[in-house]
Design a protein that fits this description.
CATH topology of the largest domain: Transcription Regulator spoIIAA
Bound molecules: 5'-deoxyadenosine, iron/sulfur cluster
CATH class of the largest domain: Alpha Beta
Shape: globular
Helix content: 25-40%
Number of domains: 4
Largest sheet: 6 strands, parallel
Radius of gyration: 22 Å
CATH architecture of the largest domain: 2-Layer Sandwich
Distance between the termini: 55 Å
């Protein structure tokens, strides 16, 4: 057996939960096969990795400013590697703009990290590469919650979105691999399983092995809920288009499935939704969201919204505000449209003045803050079972209610990993503060 000298890895992760899970896979691969251990101090690292996002322009510019900084301050001889979505879309250009970078690995080439650290100027950004059955090693940042990928890539062709170009076509991971991974994580203490995919409720549409048995996302949720040690199941992101009655019914009735749904609206205007190629109308979205509210009175619904998409008129924007008033989302992630390379919408000739976009974003946020104040005040005195996951720097323990409200209580480490009943005594917009009740 060859013993490899222990080396230190510093990793920065931008972007979404999929990226966070990719980073865990990278850490596991490098730990198991190359003897790397994690460090929080960039200056002492032998390898500095940045796992990038390209969904908007901002995280792309962040990549170059971050690695420039790392290059100036890194330990002598340390390598810098770039992974993730921006690696996929910029590829070789990263070497040109930052010649000190040692390797570039795309979002669908994570399993090649071992080869990358051992090869000069390694690059692999193939978006057809199929990692859907690759057995990654075990590493998880949290003891209490386990992210589990259920698919790779995305088949949708939303006109604003670069992700299909960075993560390739959608392939589902076989059911038994997902269930085994969830079982293993739950047995080692992660009572919450968080399923990840670009389009989770399209699960089962395509496997790399064509003889895989027919199965859909509702079946997957039910299978995972049969694992005894699993107490909570969450997932992101579902697509409003695939929210059929079967899915809503499983979501509403399976007691282990947490009652919080992310429903990315993007726009409330049917005309803009058509331009975005989202595949649903304002009416369909409202029908699904209000049906969920009727089926599950305490459900929480979060959303993503893009303002100032090309051609968005004042009336179109008002339609978005109208949906927000009707649904009263518990959380809204709102973004100003950012034209992305390799996307259709970037070519549209009716781009909106960025200042109009900023003004709309601000109006939307002011309105949403009022809605949030109303929602958080309505939680006063309520009692929620809260799964305690984290001891924060402010001395409070933090956890989530079943319906995903962030709840903070006073307490110590001994309560981590427990599900406690908490009465809300001080509801704030961003967190509900409370006390344990027996
Ligand atoms: N501009 C602004 N926001 C975008 N998103 C995706 N692409 C863009 C873009 N070009 C947002 C969408 C998506 C979230 C992850 O990022 O709202 O749901
Ligand atoms: Fe995640 Fe999309 Fe960013 Fe890639 S581009 S890291 S898929 S949010």
């Amino acid at each position: 057996m060859i013993f490899k000298e222990e080396k230190k890895l510093y990793i920065e992760t931008l972007g979404c939960a999929m990226n966070a899970r990719d980073s865990e896979h990278i850490i596991a691969e490098l730990g198991d096969k190359e003897n790397y251990v994690l460090t929080d101090t960039m200056q002492e690292a032998d390898l500095i990795l940045i796992n990038t996002c390209s969904v908007r322009e901002k995280p792309v510019s962040k990549l170059f400013s971050e690695i420039g900084k790392y290059n100036k301050r890194k330990k002598e001889g340390a390598k810098i590697g770039v992974c993730g979505c921006t690696a996929s879309h910029l590829g070789e250009e990263i070497f040109r703009r930052a010649p000190y970078v040692s390797f570039v690995i795309g979002a669908r080439n994570v399993s090649k990290i071992g080869a990358a650290v051992n090869t000069e100027r390694f690059i692999s950004v193939d978006t057809d590469y199929d990692e859907s059955t690759y057995a990654f090693g075990e590493f998880r940042h949290s003891l209490y919650k386990a992210y589990v990928n259920i698919s790779i890539g995305c088949d949708k062709k939303c006109t604003y979105c670069i992700v299909p170009q960075t993560r390739g076509d959608e392939i589902s991971i076989p059911l038994d691999l997902i269930v085994n991974e969830a079982r293993k994580a739950a047995k080692s203490g992660a009572k919450e399983i968080f399923l990840l995919g670009q389009n989770v409720n399209n699960y089962g549409k395509r496997f790399s092995n064509k003889s895989e048995a027919e199965v859909d996302f509702s079946d997957l949720l039910n299978k995972i809920s049969e694992i005894e040690e699993v107490e909570r199941i969450r997932f992101t992101s579902p697509h409003p288009l695939h929210m059929d009655d079967k899915f809503l019914q499983t979501f509403a009735t399976n007691p282990k499935v947490c009652k919080s749904m992310h429903m990315p609206l993007q726009s409330g205007s049917t005309h803009i939704l058509e331009q975005m190629k989202r595949g649903y109308t304002k009416e369909w979205f409202l029908n699904r969201a209000l049906k969920l509210r009727a089926m599950i009175p305490d459900v929480s619904i979060s959303t993503d919204v893009i303002v100032a998409f090309p051609g968005e008129s004042e009336e179109d924007f008002e339609e978005t505000l109208d949906v927000m008033r009707q649904v009263k989302f518990e959380q809204v992630f709102a973004f100003k449209y950012s034209p992305r390379p390799l996307t259709k919408a970037a070519e549209f000739t009716n781009q909106i003045d960025p200042e109009i976009g900023s003004a709309r974003l601000e109006r939307l946020q002011v309105m949403q803050d009022d809605i949030l104040d109303e929602i958080s005040q309505s939680k006063m005195g309520k009692i929620y079972p809260v799964y305690i996951e984290e001891l924060r720097n402010n001395g409070f323990l933090a956890g989530r209610s079943d319906n995903n409200a962030l709840v903070q209580i006073k307490g110590d480490e001994s309560l981590l990993g427990q599900t406690l009943n908490v009465e809300i005594t001080n509801p704030k917009r961003l967190a509900l503060y409370g006390e344990i009740v027996l």
